[in-house]
């Protein structure tokens, strides 16, 4: 005889709490993709001078970044939760490096192609208070004397290249080349971030190494040859914390619960696989179309690692010409525009297909005082080999973005209602964790020069080592008790429950 079981409400509450704690790490699954946590940190209130100084540095960073160029396998997909840092200023996720694996937070950047981590030997102020990579703690790390250097407008990171096992979203790449940096300029890293993961193509890698994602997709490890982002918005939430849930990065598939309708794909012009390039076909400002340069002057890099949107001065001026009361900035705000905060700004962008509106909350980059705000579109001067436009998170928070390897293209889709509901939600912030299992392991054939030569990494033709799960889909799924949808990140137990299934 089977007796009935009575479960008290108190017991259920404890069970939910334990499940949310114990089952937080991704594990192999057969239905949905794995996700990676993105977080966001909200800054303290800043003065107009502080905002202007930040704006100047952001503009310099973008201009430096885009200046002169310095076998049969099981397939799978994975999602990792993201963290939103500094009120939508940046979005980071976690990777695990070494043997045994140690988790690190890294900026997720589709505008560059190198992976680098701050070294335990770094004594610079930027390295204080963050988890550094310690080469001696990994039995699989292989050091080299090949130097590495990457420069931004506000500083640089420098060190040497090495190889090790790198894990993300249920995937692992052995012999992955990355940089271990013992010199990091101030302001390049903000705790708890330890480095940066480049998600653009190998052709622009300063190290010359094939990026982690490209090794996976070129080896056929992904179910679909693409990765996708959903980013959250907290910049208009006065009660937001320093770090907030930031959305979802999906590798090897799209998460159909995060968007609605079709994905509007547009090919990368001339298959130029360097940055994730798109051609801007139209921009509207306050309901009116503006004329924009054509040809190479209309090329834009779709860049998760850039906060705002930069473009040619002539086009930027036309956008603000339609906004009553707007004025060109001066001093540290040179290249930016101010406008009355009371104005409901309506700007949209098209890349050959649909027109995608940018919310007024995202256009309002900063508020200088009660009446004056700084717009998110700014003037930028890029190098001869770089695109004229840099389209960052100001735009990407308004769409579900897909970066497709083959055919090389970028796609956008309308956000789902459940996705939009994640903006500003009071929820638990994801933390850097090491997955309990790896669905697919791919080997990179690494060749690192012993002196000052460039490092080269080529995807190996060796077969992937698959897990024993039937369909080899490493998946972290989040089930909403009330909405019954796949959610992009954990939320407080009183509202919904997330489980590994």
From TrEMBL:
A Pfam family matched in the record: Asp
Positions of the Peptidase A1 domain: 91-413
Disulfide bonds: 122-127
Gene Ontology MF annotations: aspartic-type endopeptidase activity
N-terminal signal peptide: 1-24
Active site per the UniProt annotation: 109, 303
An example Gene Ontology biological process: proteolysis
CDD domains tied to this protein: pepsin_like (cd05471)
Key words of the record: Aspartyl protease, Disulfide bond, Hydrolase, Protease, Signal
Family according to the record: Belongs to the peptidase A1 family.
PANTHER family from the UniProt entry: BETA-SITE APP-CLEAVING ENZYME, ISOFORM A-RELATED
Descriptive protein name: Acid protease
Organism (species): Gymnopus androsaceus JB14
């Amino acid at each position: 005889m089977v007796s009935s079981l009575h479960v008290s409400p108190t017991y259920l509450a404890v069970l939910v709490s334990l499940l949310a704690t114990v089952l937080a790490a991704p594990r192999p699954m057969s239905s949905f993709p794995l996700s990676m946590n993105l977080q966001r940190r909200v800054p303290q209130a800043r003065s107009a001078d502080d905002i202007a100084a930040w704006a100047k540095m952001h503009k310099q960073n973008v201009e430096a970044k885009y200046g002169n160029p310095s076998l049969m396998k099981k397939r799978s997909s994975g999602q990792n939760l993201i963290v939103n840092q500094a009120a939508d200023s940046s979005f980071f996720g976690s990777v695990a490096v070494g043997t045994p694996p140690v988790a690190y937070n890294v900026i997720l950047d589709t505008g560059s192609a190198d992976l680098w981590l701050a070294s335990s030997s770094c004594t610079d102020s930027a390295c204080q208070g963050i988890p550094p990579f310690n080469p001696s703690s990994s039995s699989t790390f292989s050091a080299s004397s090949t130097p590495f250097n990457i420069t931004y407008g506000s500083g640089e990171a420098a060190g040497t290249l090495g190889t090790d096992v790198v894990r993300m979203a249920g995937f692992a790449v052995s012999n992955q080349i990355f940089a271990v940096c013992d010199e990091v300029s101030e302001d390049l890293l903000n705790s708890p971030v330890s480095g940066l993961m480049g998600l653009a193509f190998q052709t622009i890698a300063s190290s010359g190494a094939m990026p982690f994602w490209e090794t996976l997709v070129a080896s056929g490890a992904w179910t679909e040859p693409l990765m996708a982002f959903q980013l959250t918005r907290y910049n208009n939430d006065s009660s937001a914390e320093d770090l907030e849930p930031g959305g979802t990065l999906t590798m090897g598939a799209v998460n159909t619960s995060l968007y609605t309708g079709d994905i509007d794909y547009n090919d990368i012009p001339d298959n130029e696989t360097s940055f994730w390039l798109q051609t801007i076909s139209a921009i509207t400002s306050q309901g009116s179309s503006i004329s924009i340069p054509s040809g190479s002057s209309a090329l834009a890099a779709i860049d998760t690692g850039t906060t705002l949107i930069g473009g040619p001065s002539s086009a930027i001026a036309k956008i603000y010409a339609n906004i009553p009361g707007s004025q060109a900035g001066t001093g540290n705000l040179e290249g930016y525009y101010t406008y009355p905060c009371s104005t409901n700004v309506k700007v949209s962008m098209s890349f050959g297909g649909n027109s995608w509106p940018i919310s007024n909350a995202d256009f309002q980059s900063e508020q200088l005082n009660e009446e004056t705000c700084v717009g998110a579109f700014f003037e930028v001067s890029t190098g001869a080999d770089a695109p004229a436009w840099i389209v960052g998170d100001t735009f990407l928070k308004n769409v579900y973005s897909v970066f497709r390897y083959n055919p090389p293209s970028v796609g956008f889709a309308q956000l789902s209602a459940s996705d939009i509901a994640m903006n500003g939600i009071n929820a638990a912030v994801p933390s850097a964790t090491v997955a309990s299992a790896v669905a697919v392991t791919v080997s990179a054939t690494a060749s690192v020069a012993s002196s000052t030569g460039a490092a080269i990494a080529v995807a190996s033709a060796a077969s992937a080592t698959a897990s024993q799960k039937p369909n080899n889909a490493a998946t972290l799924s989040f089930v909403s008790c009330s909405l019954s949808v796949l959610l992009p990140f954990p939320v407080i137990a009183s509202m919904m429950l997330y489980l590994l299934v």
